[in-house]
Amino acid sequence: MKTRNMEQAKNRYSRQNRYLKATSAAVAVFCLMPYGQATAQESEPAAAPQAAEETPASDIVVTGSRVAREGFTAPTPTTVIGVEQIKAAAPASIADYVNQLPALVGSNTPRIANTGASATVGSNLFNLRSLGANRTLVLLDGHRVVPSTITGNVDINLLPQALVQRVDVVTGGASAAWGSDAVAGVVNFVLDRKFEGVMANIQSGIAEEGDARTFKAELSYGTSFADGRGHFIVSGEYHDDGAAGKVSTRDWFKSRKVIFNPAWTATNGQPRRIVQTGVGASNETSGGLITGPATVTVGGVTMANPLRNIQFGPGGVPMPYDPGTVSGISAFGGDVEDISQAIELAVPLRYGTAYGRLSYEIAPDVTIYGEATYAKAWNEIVARVYDRGGNITIRRDNAFLPGSIATQMASLGLNTIQMGRMFLDWGPLRGRNKREQQRYVAGAEGELSGGWSWDAYVQHGVTDFSTGAYDNNPIIANFNRAVDSVVNPANGQIVCRTTLADPTNGCVPLNIFGSGSTSEAGRNYVFGRSVQNIKIQQDVVAASLRGEPLSLWAGPVSVALGIEGRREKYRSTADALSLTDAFFVGNFKPSSGKYDVKEAFFETVIPLLADKPFAKSLDLNAAIRLTDYSLSGSVTTWKVGATWDLNDQIRARGVVSRDIRAPNLSELFQGGATLNQTVDDPVTGTSYSSRTVSQGNPNLKPEKADTKSFGIVYRPHWLDGLSVSVDYFDIKIDGAIASLIAQRIIDKCDEGITSQCAFITRSSPTGPIQSILLVPQNINSERTKGIDIEGTYRTELGKGDLTLRAVATYVDERSETADGQKVEYAGTNANESQPSKAVPSWRVMSSVTYDLGDIASTLTGRFISAGKLNNAWVEGVDIDDNNVPSAFYLDWSMTYRIDSFGKGAEVYFAIQNLLDKDPPASPNYSTASTIQTGVNGYIYDVIGRQFRVGVRTKF
Question: What is the pTM of this model?
Answer without folding.
Answer: 0.89
